[in-house]
C-alpha cells in the first residue's frame, strides 16, 4: 500500500495560531510595551541620575612637565568611587593595531611573538634576534600618565587602589607572568617594547606581583576599547577613615604625571571620577529612551484605541 | 547465491519500480559516463550493424559488458566530479575565492578559516547527500548485476550472474523472470515458439504482449539441439528505438528476417510461458532500456533565476561597498591617522589591499547558507506533496509523487495550464456506446454501454451481397492487437495497449462475435456459436501519422481481406466513391457522436485478389526486413493496400470525464489560470469535452481557426470574452513570426484555447509559443506518451498516472493519480510553497544584510580599518548555527491561510503570486534590513557608549560592545521570523527561541575555551561579564523590541486599514471558527477527517438555505471600513474586498458548467456530471 500516513505533521495540519495584527492584538501589545517600558525607564533614569561623575580634561598640560588641576566636589561621592582616564580620537580598535598582540605570550610564553610584526623582535648588538615582551603595537603604546589626588586643604593624598578594577578572568587566567621567582630574570632574554622606558618587570617596583604581564595598568590597556572615545579604569578609592562613605565634598588637587603624547593625532585626554549604580556609570540614554518609547507607545495606543472605538467595525456588529 | 534464492529474489525482491528508477536517475548517457567497465568498452563510434556468432566466445569484436552502472561516482572520480558539479554554481566559486583570499596574510579581517569552515560544512552536507544517493544506486546496481540466469555452456545450463552474460550467449529464461539483456527469441515452451511478455518496466503497459520465435529456430528446443545449432545474427547496431528492430537470423544457411516481434528487451518480464531460449544481442548499456534512459531536462524555477540575479546584484553592491570603504580608509589614513604614532609602521596600507579586506569583510552579504537552506526546505516540501493523503488515489493505490523538488514554488506561479484530453480530463475507460452501420444508427446515449438488439437482428437478417453488417462486426472482433487471457474462472480478459480496441472487442463479443484465441498466425472468433479461424497475414500498426490500423487476413476459404479502422478524415479519403449515401448518413452520425463527446472510429474493408496479395506481400516483406528498414517503401506499400476500401460505418466510444473535472477547471479559472486543452482528437470531440469540462461555456464566442486564412478573419478589437479552437494544421502558421501580434493580441487574450488534431511535437510547440510570448509560467499536464514532449517543454510538467502507462509520469516533474488533484497541487502546495520559499529567500537576505551592514556602521568608528565589531567565529557561525533554523522552519511550517480557504477561494492563488519576489518587495526588504542594522548598531552604541557597565566599575571593551550587539541582532532576527510568520506553530517557536538559546550557550562555552584551545582569546570571560551587566539585559529588552516595534505597528496599521486579501481571509477564518467549529478537524482516525476540500468533502460546511443567505449577506468588512475609505488610495482594494465577499466554492456549484453564473441555491444538478458523492 502506498497510502501516505495521516498525521498532523505530514498533512500540514499542525496546531497553530495565526497572529493577525488587528486592533485586538496591536493595541494591547502597544499598551503592554508602554506599561513595561515606562517603569523600567524610570528605574534606569533614577539609576543614572544617582551616579555622580566629575570629569577634567587636561589637554592644557605639557608633556613631561608637572601639571596640577584643582577639582571641586560639591556633593559627596558616596559609595565606591572609581577613577578613570579617558582618551578621545584614539583608534585602539584599528584592525592592525587591535590584532598586534600575542595572547600566548601574555600567558608567559615569552618567545611567542607571531602576529606582533613589526613589533615582535629587535636585533641585539650581537646580531641575534631578541623577542620583544610584551610584543605588539598595543603594548608598545601603553598609556603611562599617572595621577595623584590630594585633599587641597590637608594636602593629604587620597589613597587609591588598583584592586578590583580589571576583569577577574584577565588577572587570573589571561595574563600570566613567565615562571620563576625573579621576574626580571625571567624577562632577561627578551627586549622591552621599543617605546618603553622601563622593563616590564619593573612596572610596579613596590609590588612585584603587580609587575610584568600581570600589572593592572597593563591589563587595562590590553583590553582594547571598542570605540575611538573611551575610558579606562585607573584606580579605585580605598574606603577607610574619612573615605568610609566615599569621596567627601571638598576641594582636591590632581597631580598629573603627563607623559603620553596625543596632540600629534589630535587626541584628547581626561581624568574622570565616578560612582556607579547597578547599571554602571552615568549614561542616561537608555533610561530616557525607555521613557520615550514607552511614552510614544502610550500615545499611539490611545490614538489607536480612539480610532478603534470611533470607526472600528467589529464583525460582530453585522 | 543459490538458484532457489535467486528465484525468490526475482519474484519478490525485484519490485517493478527498480527498472524505471534507472530511467529516472541520471543514468549513464555516453557523455556523462564515469562507470568503470562499461565506459571503457563502449564503442566510440556509432555502430551501424553488428555480426554475432551465437553460442561461442569467439566474436568478431568486443561488445559492451552486461554489467551496468548507474552511479555518478566511484572512489576516484568522486572528488573531481563532485567539485566540478558544485563549482558550476557561481555562489560556490565566490565562497571559494573568499576562502582563498583569506589565506593571504594580513588581508582578512576575520582570520583565515572563517569562510572555509562554514563553506566546508555546507559542502560536506551536499557531499553526504550525493554519496548517500549514489550508494543507493550502487546497491541497486550490485543487486541487479548479480542476479543469476541460466546460460548454455558445454551442453549444460549453468548459472551465471547477469554481469557476466556476453553477446552471443544462449540463455534460458523461466516464467516470471526478467530478461537480463536484449535477446532474440529462439524458441519457447509453447506451440509455435510463442511467448508472452509484460513490458511495464519499459513503457508502463501492464497488458501482455505476444512474441514469437522465428520459424527457423523453433525446433531447437533442447540444449543438445541448441549446442549443435550453427547460428549467426546480423542486426543493426544498438539504438534506443524500442519498437523497431531489424536483422537476420542465419541458421544452417536458413535465413530469417528478424523484427521487433522476436526481440525480448531487457527489463521486460516473461509471463504465462514456462521458458524461453534466446540469443543475447545487446548487453549492458547497449540494451534498449538503458539507451532510453536519459536525464530529464533540468528545469529551474523562476524564483531560482530571480534569486540568482539578486545574488549577482548583491555581488556588485559588495564590490561597490568594498571600493567605497577602501576610499574611506584612504581618507582616514590621510586626515585622521596621519600622525597616530601608536599605529606606527602598521598603519601603512595600500588601497588595493584595503579593498580586498573589505571585500572579505562584507562577503556574507551573499548568504552562504541560502542554497543549503533552500535545498533542505524543498526536500521536505516535496515530502508534503508525496505524503498528502488528499492527493492519494485509493483505487489505484497511488500517491502523488514529486520527482523534482526544484519546482515546488513554481507550482504557485502557474498562469497557463496545457492539458491533454484523453486520460487526463477523461478517464480513458472506454465503453462502446453507439455505432452507425450503412447509415443506420444503433445504440443510445442513456445506456452505460451498447445495448441495442436491433443490430444483432440486422446481422441475422443480413442477406445483402456484401454482408456489410457481418463485416462490420467481424472487423470489430478481428482488427486489433488485443491478447485474450483466460482467467481461472473461465472469463476472458482482453489485454491491449489501446483502450479503444478493448472497448470494440468487448462490444463485439457482447454482440455475439467473441474473440477467443490469438495464435501467432491466426485468431479464433466465435460467431454466434460457430468458431471461425482468421489467419492474420499482416498487421499494419496504428501510429499518430497514419491514424489508422489494418489487418490483412484470410479464412480457410482463402479469401484475402483487409480490415482497416481509423480516424474519419483518414478513412473517408480511402473509401470508394460509390457509397455516397451511406457515407453521408454516417458523417451525420459521426458529428452527432462527436458532439456528445464520444470518440469515433470509421471502419472499412477491402477484399484482395490472391495473386495481388502475394505480389504485394513479397514486396512488403522485403521492404520491412531490409537493414536498415526502407521506411519510404514500407509507407508506400501500406498506402497501396489501404485504398479503394468499402465503407462499413462508424463506432462511438464514450470516455467519461474524470472526477471533479469541471469543478477543477472552474477553480483554475477563478485562480486566473488559463487552461488550454491540447488534444489529438478531432474538433467536435475536443470542443464537446471542452464544454462539458467547463472550459468553454455556451455564452462565450468561439472562434475556430481551421485554415491559415482564419487567422486574418479575427479582428482583435472586436473581441471580448472569447475562446479559440485551433487546428493542428495551422499551428505552424500561428507560431510563425509573422503572426506574433496575432498570438499576443488574440491567442493569449482568449479565455481558453482548444487545440485539436495535435501531434505530440505540436503540443510542445504550443507550450513553447506561450512561454515565449507571455513570459509566464506554463504547466503541462498529460498522461500518455504523446504528452511527454509537452511535459518536458513546460516550466512544470505534471503526469497523470493513469491508463496509458507511466511514460508521461516518469518524464514529469510531479505525478498525480487524478486530474482533480491538480487543484490541490497548485492551490495548496503551489501557493504555500511559493509563499514559503519567497519568505525563506527574503528572510535569508534580510538577516545577512542586517548583521553584516553593521560592520559598515562600525567602520565609521574604527577608521575604516576593516576591523570587525564581532568576533570572527561568531560571525562565521551566524548562518550555519544561530540563525540557520528559523528560515527552515518558515519554509516548512508557515501557512498563509488554511488549505480549505485556499480551495474555497481560488482567487487567492493569484493574490499570493503578487506577494511574490518582485523588485519592489526585494528593495523593501533590503531597506528594512538596512534600517534594522542602523537601529541595532546605533542603539547598542548609545547604550554602551559609556563603557562603564558594571556596578563594580569595570569597563567593557571591543567585544563587550560586539557581543552585545550580536546578541541583539540574533534576538531581533529570530523574533523577526516570528513576526513574518503567518502561523505560529510550536515547532517554530521552539526553533526561534532555541536559536537564541544556542547563541547564549555557544557564547558561554566559547568564552571559556581560551587558553585550553588556542582560539577565542579575545572572547575570554566576555560572556560572564556581559551577562552580569544590568545594562546589557536592559538593552536586550529594549533594542529588539524597539527594532521590531516599528515593523509591528506598520504591519498592524496595514492589516487594519489596508488589509491584504490574505489578512481578510484569516480574519474570516477566525470569525467562522468562532461562530461554529466548522473548521476543526479531529485527528486520529480515518483519513477523511483530514479532508478539508470543499468540493470532495462539503460536509464540514453544510449550511442550510437561511444560513447561506446569511453567509452571503454577511459581507466581511475590514475593521476600519470608514477610515480606510478616507485613506483609500489603493485601487486594488475594492477588488480584494469583492473577492472576500464572493461566495465560496462549493460542491455542486459547477455541476452544470453551462450555468456559468453560479448563484448559490440555484444550482442545476445536471445528470451528466453527477458525481459519486452527490
From TrEMBL, chain A:
> Where do the TM regions start and end?
21-47, 285-307
Localization, UniProt: Membrane
Origin: domain of life: Eukaryota
Is-annotated flag, keyword Protease?
no
One Gene Ontology cellular component: Golgi apparatus
Q: Membrane topology per the record?
A: Multi-pass membrane protein
The answer to keyword Ligase applying to this record is no
Keywords per UniProt: Membrane, Transmembrane, Transmembrane helix
Indicate where this protein is primarily found.
Answer: membrane
Which PANTHER family does the entry mention? CDC50, ISOFORM A, CELL CYCLE CONTROL PROTEIN 50
Q: Which family does it belong to?
A: Belongs to the CDC50/LEM3 family.
What's the protein called, per UniProt?
Answer: Cell cycle control protein
Its taxonomic placement starts with:
Eukaryota, Metazoa, Ecdysozoa, Nematoda, Chromadorea
TrEMBL record, chain B:
User: Which UniProt keywords are given for this protein, alphabetically ordered?
Assistant: ATP-binding, Cell membrane, Magnesium, Membrane, Metal-binding, Nucleotide-binding, Translocase, Transmembrane, Transmembrane helix
User: Disordered: where is this region?
Assistant: 1085-1119
Q: What class of enzyme is it?
A: translocase
The record's GO molecular-function terms, alphabetically, read: ATP binding; ATP hydrolysis activity; ATPase-coupled intramembrane lipid transporter activity; magnesium ion binding
* Source species, domain of life: Eukaryota
Supply one GO BP term: phospholipid translocation
- Enzyme Commission code(s) on record: 7.6.2.1
Cofactor requirement: Mg(2+)
Q: What is its main location?
A: membrane
Coiled-coil spans are none
Domain P-type ATPase N-terminal, residue spans: 53-115
Membrane disposition: Multi-pass membrane protein
State the similarity comment.
Belongs to the cation transport ATPase (P-type) (TC 3.A.3) family. Type IV subfamily.
In Swiss-Prot or TrEMBL terms, this protein is called Phospholipid-transporting ATPase
Question: Which species is listed as the source?
Answer: Panagrolaimus superbus
Amino acid at each position: 500500500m502506498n497510502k501516505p500516513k495521516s498525521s498532523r505533521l505530514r498533512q500540514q495540519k499542525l496546531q497553530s495560531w495565526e497572529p493577525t495584527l488587528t486592533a485586538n492584538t496591536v493595541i494591547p501589545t502597544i499598551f503592554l510595551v508602554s506599561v513595561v517600558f515606562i517603569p523600567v525607564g524610570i528605574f534606569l533614569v533614577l539609576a543614572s541620575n544617582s551616579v555622580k561623575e566629575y570629569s577634567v580634561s587636561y589637554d592644557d598640560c605639557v608633556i613631561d612637565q608637572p601639571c596640577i588641576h584643582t577639582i571641586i566636589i560639591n556633593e559627596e561621592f558616596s559609595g565606591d568611587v572609581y577613577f578613570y582616564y579617558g582618551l578621545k580620537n584614539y583608534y585602539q580598535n584599528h584592525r592592525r593595531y587591535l590584532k598586534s598582540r600575542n595572547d600566548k605570550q601574555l600567558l608567559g610564553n615569552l618567545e611567542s611573538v607571531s602576529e606582533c610584526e613589526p613589533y615582535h623582535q629587535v636585533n641585539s648588538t650581537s646580531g641575534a634576534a631578541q623577542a620583544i615582551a610584551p610584543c605588539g603595537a598595543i603594548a608598545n603604546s601603553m598609556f603611562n600618565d599617572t595621577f595623584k589626588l590630594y585633599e587641597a586643604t590637608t594636602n593629604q593624598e587620597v589613597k587609591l587602589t588598583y584592586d578590583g578594577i580589571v576583569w577577574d578572568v584577565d588577572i587570573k587566567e589571561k595574563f600570566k607572568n613567565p615562571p620563576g621567582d625573579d621576574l626580571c630574570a625571567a624577562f632577561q632574554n627578551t627586549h622591552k617594547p621599543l617605546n618603553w622606558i622601563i622593563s616590564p618587570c619593573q612596572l610596579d617596583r613596590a609590588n612585584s606581583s603587580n609587575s610584568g604581564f600581570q600589572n593592572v595598568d597593563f591589563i587595562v590597556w590590553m583590553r582594547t576599547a571598542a570605540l575611538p572615545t573611551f575610558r579606562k579604569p585607573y584606580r579605585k578609592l580605598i574606603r577607610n577613615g574619612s573615605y568610609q562613605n566615599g569621596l567627601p565634598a571638598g576641594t582636591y588637587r590632581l597631580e598629573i604625571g603627563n607623559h603620553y603624547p596625543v596632540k600629534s593625532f589630535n587626541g584628547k585626554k581626561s581624568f574622570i571620577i565616578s560612582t556607579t549604580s547597578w547599571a554602571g556609570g552615568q549614561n542616561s540614554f537608555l533610561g530616557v529612551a525607555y521613557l520615550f518609547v514607552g511614552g510614544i507607545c502610550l500615545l499611539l495606543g490611545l490614538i489607536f484605541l480612539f480610532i478603534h472605538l470611533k470607526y472600528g467595525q467589529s464583525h460582530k456588529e453585522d | 547465491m543459490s538458484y532457489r534464492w535467486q528465484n525468490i529474489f526475482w519474484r519478490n525482491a525485484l519490485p517493478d519500480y527498480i527498472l524505471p528508477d534507472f530511467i529516472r536517475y541520471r543514468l549513464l548517457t555516453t557523455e556523462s559516463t564515469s562507470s568503470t567497465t562499461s565506459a571503457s568498452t563502449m564503442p566510440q563510434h556509432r555502430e551501424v550493424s553488428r555480426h554475432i556468432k551465437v553460442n561461442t566466445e569467439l566474436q568478431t569484436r568486443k561488445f559492451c559488458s552486461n554489467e551496468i552502472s548507474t552511479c555518478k561516482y566511484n572512489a576516484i572520480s568522486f572528488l573531481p566530479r563532485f567539485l566540478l558539479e558544485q563549482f558550476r554554481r557561481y555562489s560556490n566559486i565566490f565562497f571559494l575565492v573568499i576562502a582563498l583570499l583569506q589565506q593571504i596574510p594580513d588581508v582578512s579581517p576575520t582570520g583565515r578559516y572563517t569562510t572555509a569552515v562554514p563553506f566546508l560544512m555546507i559542502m560536506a552536507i551536499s557531499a553526504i547527500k550525493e554519496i548517500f544517493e549514489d550508494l543507493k544506486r550502487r546497491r541497486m546496481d550490485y543487486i541487479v548485476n548479480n542476479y543469476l540466469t541460466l546460460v548454455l555452456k558445454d551442453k549444460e545450463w549453468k548459472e551465471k550472474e547477469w554481469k557476466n552474460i556476453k553477446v552471443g550467449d544462449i540463455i534460458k529464461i523461466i516464467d516470471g523472470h526478467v530478461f537480463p539483456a536484449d535477446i532474440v527469441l529462439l524458441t519457447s515452451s509453447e506451440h509455435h515458439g510463442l511467448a508472452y511478455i509484460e513490458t511495464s518496466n519499459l513503457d508502463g503497459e501492464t497488458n501482455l504482449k505476444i512474441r514469437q520465435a522465428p520459424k527457423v529456430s523453433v525446433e531447437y528446443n533442447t540444449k543438445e539441439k541448441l549446442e549443435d545449432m550453427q547460428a549467426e545474427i546480423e542486426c543493426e547496431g544498438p539504438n534506443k528505438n524500442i519498437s523497431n528492430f531489424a536483422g537476420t537470423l542465419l541458421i544452417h544457411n536458413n535465413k530469417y528476417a528478424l523484427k521487433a516481434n522476436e526481440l525480448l528487451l531487457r527489463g521486460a518480464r516473461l509471463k504465462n510461458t514456462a521458458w524461453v531460449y534466446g540469443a543475447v544481442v545487446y548487453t549492458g548499456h547497449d540494451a534498449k532500456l538503458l539507451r532510453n534512459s536519459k536525464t530529464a531536462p533540468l528545469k529551474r524555477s523562476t524564483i531560482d533565476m530571480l534569486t540568482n540575479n539578486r545574488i549577482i546584484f548583491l555581488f556588485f553592491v559588495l564590490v561597490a561597498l568594498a571600493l567605497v570603504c577602501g576610499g574611506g580608509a584612504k581618507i582616514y589614513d590621510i586626515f585622521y591617522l596621519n600622525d597616530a604614532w601608536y599605529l606606527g609602521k602598521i598603519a601603512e596600507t595600500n588601497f588595493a589591499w584595503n579593498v580586498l579586506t573589505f571585500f572579505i569583510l562584507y562577503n556574507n552579504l551573499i548568504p552562504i547558507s541560502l542554497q543549503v537552506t533552500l535545498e533542505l526546505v524543498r526536500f521536505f516540501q516535496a515530502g508534503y506533496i508525496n505524503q498528502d493523503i488528499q492527493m492519494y488515489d485509493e483505487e489505484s493505490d497511488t500517491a502523488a509523487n514529486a520527482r523534482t523538488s526544484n519546482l515546488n514554488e513554481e507550482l504557485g506561479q502557474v498562469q497557463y495550464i496545457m492539458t491533454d484530453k484523453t486520460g487526463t480530463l477523461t478517464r480513458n475507460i472506454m465503453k462502446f456506446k453507439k455505432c452507425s452501420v450503412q447509415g443506420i444508427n444503433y445504440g443510445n446515449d442513456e445506456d452505460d454501454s451498447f445495448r441495442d438488439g436491433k443490430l444483432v437482428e440486422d446481422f441475422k437478417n443480413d442477406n445483402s451481397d456484401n454482408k456489410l453488417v457481418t463485416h462490420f462486426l467481424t472487423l470489430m472482433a478481428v482488427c486489433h492487437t488485443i491478447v485474450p487471457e483466460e482467467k481461472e474462472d473461465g472469463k476472458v480478459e482482453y489485454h491491449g495497449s489501446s483502450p479503444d480496441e478493448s472497448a470494440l472487442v468487448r462490444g463485439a463479443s457482447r454482440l455475439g462475435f467473441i474473440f477467443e484465441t490469438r495464435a501467432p498466425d491466426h485468431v479464433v472468433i466465435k460467431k454466434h456459436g460457430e468458431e471461425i479461424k482468421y489467419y492474420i497475414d499482416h498487421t499494419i500498426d496504428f501510429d499518430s501519422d497514419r491514424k489508422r490500423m489494418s489487418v490483412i487476413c484470410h479464412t480457410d476459404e482463402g479469401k484475402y481481406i483487409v480490415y482497416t479502422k481509423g480516424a474519419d478524415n483518414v478513412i473517408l479519403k480511402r473509401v470508394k466513391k460509390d457509397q455516397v449515401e451511406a457515407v453521408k448518413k454516417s458523417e451525420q452520425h459521426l458529428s452527432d457522436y462527436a458532439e456528445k463527446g464520444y470518440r469515433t472510429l470509421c471502419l472499412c474493408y477491402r477484399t484482395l485478389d490472391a495473386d495481388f496479395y502475394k505480389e504485394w506481400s513479397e514486396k512488403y516483406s522485403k521492404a520491412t526486413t531490409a537493414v536498415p528498414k526502407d521506411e519510404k517503401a514500407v509507407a508506400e506499400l501500406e498506402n497501396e493496400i489501404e485504398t479503394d476500401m468499402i465503407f462499413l460505418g462508424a463506432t462511438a466510444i464514450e470516455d467519461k470525464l474524470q472526477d471533479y473535472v469541471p469543478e477543477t477547471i472552474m477553480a483554475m479559472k477563478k485562480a486566473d489560470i488559463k487552461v488550454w486543452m491540447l488534444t489529438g482528437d478531432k474538433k467536435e470531440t475536443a470542443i464537446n469535452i471542452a464544454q462539458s469540462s467547463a472550459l468553454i461555456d455556451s455564452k462565450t464566442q468561439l472562434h475556430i481557426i481551421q485554415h491559415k486564412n482564419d487567422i486574418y478573419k479575427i479582428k482583435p478589437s472586436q473581441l471580448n470574452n472569447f475562446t479559440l479552437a485551433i487546428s493542428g494544421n495551422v499551428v505552424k502558421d500561428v507560431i510563425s513570426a509573422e503572426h506574433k501580434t496575432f498570438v499576443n493580441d488574440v491567442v493569449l487574450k482568449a479565455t481558453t484555447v482548444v487545440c485539436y488534431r495535435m501531434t505530440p511535437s505540436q503540443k510542445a510547440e504550443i507550450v513553447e509559443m506561450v512561454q515565449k510570448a507571455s513570459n509566464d509560467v506554463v504547466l503541462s499536464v498529460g498522461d500518455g506518451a504523446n504528452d511527454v514532449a509537452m511535459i518536458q517543454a513546460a516550466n512544470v510538467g505534471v503526469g497523470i498516472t493513469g491508463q496509458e502507462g507511466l511514460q508521461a509520469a516518469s518524464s514529469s516533474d510531479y505525478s498525480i493519480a487524478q486530474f482533480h488533484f491538480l487543484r490541490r497541487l497548485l492551490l495548496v502546495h503551489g501557493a504555500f510553497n511559493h509563499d514559503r520559499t519567497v519568505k525563506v529567500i527574503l528572510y535569508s537576505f534580510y538577516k545577512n544584510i542586517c548583521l553584516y551592514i553593521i560592520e559598515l556602521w562600525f567602520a565609521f568608528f574604527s577608521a575604516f580599518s576593516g576591523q570587525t565589531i564581532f568576533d570572527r567565529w561568531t560571525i562565521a557561525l551566524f548562518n550555519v548555527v544561530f540563525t540557520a533554523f528559523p528560515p527552515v522552519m518558515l519554509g516548512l511550517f508557515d501557512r498563509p491561510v488554511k488549505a480549505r480557504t485556499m480551495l474555497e477561494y481560488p482567487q487567492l492563488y493569484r493574490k499570493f503570486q503578487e506577494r511574490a519576489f518582485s523588485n519592489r518587495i526585494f528593495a523593501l526588504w533590503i531597506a528594512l534590513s538596512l534600517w534594522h542594522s542602523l537601529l541595532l548598531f546605533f542603539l547598542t552604541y548609545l547604550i554602551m557608549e559609556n563603557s562603564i557597565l558594571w556596578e563594580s566599575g569595570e569597563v567593557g571593551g571591543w567585544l563587550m560592545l560586539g557581543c552585545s550587539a550580536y546578541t541583539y541582532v540574533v534576538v531581533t532576527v529570530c523574533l523577526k521570523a516570528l513576526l513574518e510568520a503567518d502561523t505560529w506553530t510550536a515547532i517554530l517557536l521552539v526553533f526561534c527561541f532555541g536559536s537564541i538559546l544556542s547563541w547564549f550557550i555557544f557564547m558561554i562555552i566559547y568564552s571559556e575555551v581560551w587558553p585550553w584551545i588556542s582560539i577565542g582569546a579575545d572572547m575570554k570571560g566576555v560572556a560572564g561579564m556581559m551577562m552580569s551587566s544590568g545594562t546589557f539585559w536592559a538593552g536586550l529588552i529594549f533594542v529588539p523590541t524597539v527594532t521590531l516595534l516599528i515593523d509591528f505597528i506598520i504591519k498592524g496599521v496595514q492589516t487594519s486599514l489596508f488589509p491584504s486579501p490574505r489578512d481578510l481571509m484569516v480574519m474570516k477564518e477566525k470569525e467562522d471558527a468562532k461562530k461554529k467549529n466548522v473548521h476543526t478537524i479531529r485527528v486520529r482516525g480515518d483519513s477523511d477527517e483530514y479532508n478539508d476540500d470543499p468540493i470532495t468533502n462539503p460536509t464540514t460546511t453544510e449550511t442550510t438555505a437561511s444560513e447561506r443567505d446569511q453567509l452571503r449577506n454577511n459581507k466581511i468588512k475590514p475593521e476600519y471600513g470608514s477610515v480606510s475609505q478616507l485613506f483609500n488610495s489603493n485601487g486594488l482594494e475594492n477588488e480584494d474586498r469583492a473577492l472576500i465577499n464572493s461566495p465560496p466554492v462549493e460542491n455542486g456549484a459547477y455541476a452544470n458548467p453551462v450555468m456559468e453564473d453560479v448563484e448559490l441555491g440555484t444550482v442545476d444538478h445536471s445528470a451528466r456530471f453527477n458525481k459519486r458523492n452527490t
